[in-house]
Design brief:
Blueprint: H1 11-29, H2 48-62, H3 83-95, H4 100-119, H5 123-127, E1 129-132, E2 135-138, H6 139-161, H7 167-170, H8 173-183, H9 186-193, E3 201-207, E4 212-219, E5 221-225, E6 235-240, H10 241-248, E7 261-265, H11 267-275
Parallel strand pairs: 3-6
Antiparallel strand pairs: 1-2, 3-4, 4-5, 6-7
Helix pairs in contact: 1-4, 1-6, 1-8, 2-3, 2-4, 2-6, 6-8
GO molecular function: metal ion binding
Organism: Mycobacterium nebraskense
Protein name: Mycothiol-dependent maleylpyruvate isomerase metal-binding domain-containing protein
Length: 281
Amino acid sequence: MADRPVTKLDKSEVLAGLFAVWDDITALLGGLPEAEWEAASPLPGWDVKALVAHMIGTESFLAGVPAPQPDIDVSTLGHVRNDIGVMNECWVRHLSAETGADVLKRFKDITDDRRKALTSMSADEWDAVTLTPVGPESYGRFMRVRVFDCWMHEQDIREALRWPSSDDQLVGPASELSLDEIAGTMGYVVRKRANAPEGSRVLFELTGPLSRSIRVSVDGRAQLVDDFGGQEPTATIRLDGLQFTRLAGGRPLCPARSQDIDLGGDKEVAAQVVEHLNFVI
């Protein structure tokens, strides 16, 4: 079987998005009262501090720093479902007793280290194939997954603190790259998860500041296409762009934005796709 082609991405574009979302998270958490660090997030079992600890843990792992030993068998916790979850929880528990200010300092320190390492990375290293959360892929694609993960967690933090992103705050390289990452999974979602029939042409119409059209054509296999070759979509799903990212990430809808989801064409197929949008492990 031929190796899957890997995604080659522009290093400066991906790093602009990654560094921007780290800056946004740092600014959002600066001076946050200690009690707010314990605000419950939309992710089961995690407060704001846990979300930041998780990001520290992933960047530490990428920097070659081993996970701390947990005080309990974290694999028995209800919200831990896989090996990645186990690693995340080791950091969450390790940092839970630290103050918010100390956790934020750790976040700044590790992301500063990662900025230097990523900036100095050669083009060959950036394009080299490595193990990633989406299978063997380029290191650059892995970093786009990091943009997506951190950007999603910024929105989780905002939900926890009841400071939802404004329209202006939603526009930028991090949200665009996150949407690119989500769009890249929609073939899998439409065909494998929602089981859309052969010949389906599914159009996602995203509205609001994250507006874009995502088209998936099922022709033997499902793939992203720029257009349907002059044919009409067989099923359409129209919703706010941020809400699309929330559903794709298995999160509850954001209360601050429109929660309308309009289905068109074959509404049964459209409803199946919406029901199976969550692709996050």
